[in-house]
Specification:
The structure is a homodimer of 599-residue chains.
Chain A: H1 4-7, E1 9-11, H2 12-22, E2 27-30, H3 37-40, E3 50-51, H4 57-71, E4 75-80, H5 83-87, H6 89-97, E5 102-108, H7 111-115, H8 132-136, E6 143-146, H9 153-167, E7 170-176, E8 183-185, H10 201-217, E9 221-225, H11 227-231, H12 235-245, E10 249-251, E11 266-269, H13 279-286, E12 289-293, E13 315-318, E14 322-325, E15 328-331, H14 335-348, H15 379-389, E16 395-398, H16 402-406, E17 417-420, H17 430-443, H18 445-452, E18 462-467, H19 468-474, H20 477-483, E19 489-495, H21 500-505, H22 523-526, E20 536-539, H23 542-549, H24 552-555, E21 561-566, H25 574-598
Parallel strand pairs in A: 2-3, 2-4, 4-5, 5-7, 6-7, 9-10, 9-12, 10-11, 12-13, 16-17, 16-18, 18-19, 19-21, 20-21
Antiparallel strand pairs in A: 1-8, 13-14, 14-15
Helix pairs in contact in A: 2-9, 4-6, 4-17, 10-14, 12-14
Cofactor (chains A, B): thiamine diphosphate
Keywords (chains A, B): Decarboxylase, Lyase, Magnesium, Metal-binding, Thiamine pyrophosphate
Domain Thiamine pyrophosphate enzyme TPP-binding (chains A, B): 412-553
């Protein structure tokens, strides 16, 4: 005889949303459409879960990405089969490449229409396969499921959510319209989804021992901290471990803000040959052991693949799901588990040699920019200045382009989170990502605490830095910020009259690097902000910039502020120019070589 | 001994752009990126070809679609591998579903980086396959090529352009960065690409004879004109044929504006059960022969699949590449060739029975709307009114949503082109499509003539009708209109406070059908238009609407005008409600039946 619980049911959609809420998700991004409307009905029925509603689906995907990066749980977006689903694809691809957890839920046609291959709106051509879109997203997800069988659906949801966490990658859940309400046993929801990887503990212990041994054997070790540490939620344990090791520590451009940058063992950003003087030499020449943690070895994260380490024998790689110590590889050893195990081991058995001896590098002061005395706002000045203005709890979003290259020179205070999309590098990412990040920030306990104490200065701010070119791709998400009444956002628009990063790469005066000339001062008002014009300013000198960011409106932020920053269209960060020079030089060499071979 | 012409070369990119220019293309849409910049250098070197530069890639695809629909040649867009390419995908999918010619050119990484699977920005994950995106677009194109072999590249370009025309579908051309400048024989450009299908002439003649025989044998034939007639460039020959036949003629919602609607044989829009009184009966009951030309049998083009013809034996289907006469099918018979052949045959051998006898239907007057006397702007009034205001040379773009359902009730004067995306139904399509259409309109001879004569009233206008919800997805393309200095565009924003079509379908008062509240009156100015506020108006009564559209600013249009039209959020066109009712009724029946079966 079954208990009463065995006969209780809940609709499939309710199960889905409650599962998602269990992960910590509080806001669902997306755009409504006739194939997902009934699915959306169930969102607000879940305690603590809300529908957001973005201006378009690409923006929804970017917003979910930004949300996930701040909150640690997956970002969630809902679209409609085909039209919305494909519009979001590029945003999901970015999350895939940068290991951001995303759950993309697609409302589709019902099973009857699918089986008869009916020509329903949003389908492709005559006799359409309604599942053709599902194949399209195969390369940008780690798992997917179709909720088209009442018996398997709950298990499929659970499996896919687990995969999302295991790989920190996007997953897709397809919901046919006619399966939204089907009843499933309510008891299933009570057992939480197992999100932990199946660690090989013996391999993990061996790896920990091998790593400790190698560190002890080295004279001048160094650590490079990269993005996957953040993506797999290992930032806290890593910082704890760094405090134990006190080994000279660097971050990559993508790893920036994971490490507390005020620590004495922190040396700055390592980006191959595109680093400040002394940095590359410290790692590549002076270190006899390099520990590369949570790496993404993409071009702009390695100075255009210009890293030049000595030998594999003297390196340790800590990847998402394995650890490589010299030539030995330990599989099924996962980032968080490994770092936690290493930290715990060191607590019990500290290193026999004092970490202090390993603080061996003398890095020269960065060169003084030639335009340091300029009164107008320069690339050599602004990024450090924005970095300095941010305090604990603040989030900075840097768009692809000059901002991304520039921010490697900024020093971030502990508790500042920096978000940027370097590997995928899709312009337009930052505006919706800022929206998602700001929503997550408002949901944080720290923000609620500061708010409760009416401690305005301690409430975190989300500071977006976007170029006038990139802004145009996704600008309408400012409207969603206004709709949601966000008051924790500062939008800095770098107005340098077009695609400056592309001018630096090719065609400085070509028409294709020009853009439409907008009136940025009217944007907030056009998108519906009250006092939009009052809260919009334009500055073209360092002094005016200082005045703006030190005003009470900015320090005690209480409504969206837009700051248009006028800069020279041909001014670029030194790092961008250095990387371009390096690649051009390399290409010239290759060309010369191939010409020789041809003779 | 070769001639001098055999040794002359031109860069591959120059060949590509000259080929595209030969098709009639004058404007190239897209967004620049570091992998396509050098490719773009060659555009302006071709006489009569210009780069446009859109606000984002989805918009560029929609714009290319609108451009193609007006101009007849393919729309062309250029994007960057991955980031831009995927962002455009949904726009290309729409063109695919609606048989619009598109050439999507993607600038990719060079071959060396592809072969080494380097982690270059815009790639997917570790050890990336740079060609993974090419597989993603496989379902939304009819052909593609990679220009990665100097010997095959020109032939591949030609093959793909031919396929674009044969099927009137999108094609992709992938250009690795390092192949942009490779030299190819210049002489190749002189032989034009063969764009004509390989007709089976015997089958074509047999089909023509069979069709004439069947028409002669019928007493009450009727013709349904649909979208593919337009897509395959057969509108002129079809209208000529209709004048010869004088058979009662209908259009589908997607076929609207192909036929001259002032002809005595034109009866209106046939959309299955969702038609004005008498229409369905005329075709389904009173006709003894139905000729369905250029059909796309999607749901909203057939009243939710509610057509109810008698028998196949009494029907003729004229498809893109075959003709079906009763049970006999004639393959490799193509739309234009067939219609031309039929028209020529009828010129020599007219029908033996007078066409006049076939004008047999009495269609009752449309019912008078219950809200006919309303002073405010109603759904039952506005679409007919906008239809009536358009004159020869004008283009009307109707967004998915109420506009799309409403415009079936409008009567268009000859020479008015109506554009809408009914089968794919992707909201946001209309704003960039309007931009593309307006660019094509300015390039037309008719416009140039009127301009030369300073005949402002005869210069065509492009009239966009978009809802406040749909507008938000792609609004930034208004900035591109301003950048290009377009002065032939009227933007009508139907402000009915959210997604009204979705309120009608499900959740009338649900929050997910609400949108951000923008200040539409500021949009033109924010996007950089001079006198933007002067050229923006808001109207909420029929009288004010009349006043606006009859003002000189609208009749002698000389700068972009924005007209915000306030309408009730729950008012919907009768056709939308009728289709919803029909589908709900059908679903209820299915549910009831399946419950019976289960017992």
């Amino acid at each position: 005889m079954g208990s009463i619980r065995d006969v209780l049911t809940l609709p499939l959609a309710a199960y889905l949303w409650r599962r998602i809420r269990q992960l910590g998700v509080q806001s669902v991004m997306g755009v409504p459409g006739d194939m997902n409307l009934e699915l959306l009905d169930y969102i607000d029925q879940v305690d603590g879960l809300s529908w957001v509603g973005n201006a378009n689906e690409l923006n929804a995907a970017y917003a979910a990405d930004g949300y996930s990066r701040v909150k640690g749980c997956p970002g969630v977006l809902v679209t409609t089969m085909g039209v919305g689903e494909l519009s979001a694809l590029n945003g999901v691809a970015g999350a895939y490449t940068e290991n951001v957890k995303l759950i993309h839920i697609v409302g589709t046609t019902g099973m009857r229409a699918q089986k008869s291959r009916a020509m329903i709106h949003h389908c492709l051509g005559p006799n359409p396969d309604h599942r053709v879109y599902s194949a399209i997203s195969d390369s940008v997800r780690t798992a997917h499921c179709w909720l088209d069988d009442v018996n398997t659906a709950p298990g499929e949801i659970d499996r896919v959510l687990r995969e999302c966490y295991l790989h920190s990658l996007p997953v897709y859940i397809f919901v046919p319209m006619d399966f939204v309400h089907v009843p499933i046993p309510a008891a299933l929801i009570e057992e939480p989804v197992d999100l932990k990887p199946k660690t090989d503990y013996e391999a993990c212990i061996s790896a920990i021992n091998a790593v400790i041994e190698m560190i002890e054997a080295s004279s001048v070790p160094s650590i490079i901290v990269d993005a996957l540490v953040h993506r797999f939620g290992a930032s806290d344990v890593l910082n704890q471990l760094l405090d134990q090791l006190e080994i000279p520590t660097f971050t990559t451009p993508m790893g920036k803000s994971i490490v507390s940058e005020n620590k004495p063992y922190f040396y700055g950003v390592y980006n191959g040959q595109v680093s400040l003087p002394g940095i590359a030499k410290a790692i590549e020449t002076n270190s006899d052991l390099v520990i590369d943690v949570g790496f993404i070895h993409s071009d702009s994260n390695t100075g255009g693949h210009s890293r030049n380490f000595s030998s594999q024998a003297r390196s340790i790689l800590v990847a998402a799901d394995y650890v490589q110590v010299g030539h030995a590889r330990y599989d099924n050893v996962y980032l968080v588990e490994f770092l936690t195990g290493l930290s715990e081991t060191l607590s019990t058995y500290p290193l026999t040699r004092l970490p202090g001896q390993r603080r061996a590098f003398t890095i020269p002061n960065p060169p003084i920019p030639t335009d340091v005395t300029a009164k107008h706002i320069t690339q050599s000045w602004i990024w450090k200045r924005i970095g300095a203005m941010a305090g604990p709890g603040d989030i900075i979003i840097g768009e692809s382009g000059t901002a991304q290259f520039g921010f490697s020179d900024a020093m971030f205070k502990p508790g500042v989170q920096y978000i940027t999309q370097i590997y995928f590098g899709s312009i337009g990412y930052s505006v919706p990502a800022c929206f998602g990040a700001a929503v997550a920030q408002l949901e944080s306990e720290a923000w609620a605490d500061a708010q409760a104490l009416n401690d305005r200065a301690r409430r975190g701010r989300t500071i977006l830095v976007v170029g006038d070119g990139s802004l145009q791709l996704t600008v309408q998400e400012i409207g969603t910020m206004v709709k949601k009444g966000l008051r924790n956002v500062i939008i800095m628009v770098i107005n340098n009259n077009g695609y400056t990063i592309e001018r630096a790469i090719h065609g400085p005066e070509q028409g294709y690097n020009d853009i439409a000339t907008w009136n940025h001062q009217l944007l907030l008002s056009a998108f519906g902000a009250k006092d939009g014009e009052v809260n919009s300013r334009v500055v073209d000198t360092k002094e005016a910039f200082e005045e703006a960011i030190s005003s009470q409106e900015y320090t005690d932020l209480n409504s969206i502020q837009l700051l248009e920053v006028i800069m020279d269209k041909m001014d670029v960060p030194w790092r961008l120019q250095a990387q371009i020079d390096l690649i051009n030089e390399r290409n010239a060499k290759i060309k010369k070589q191939s010409q020789k071979t041809c003779r």
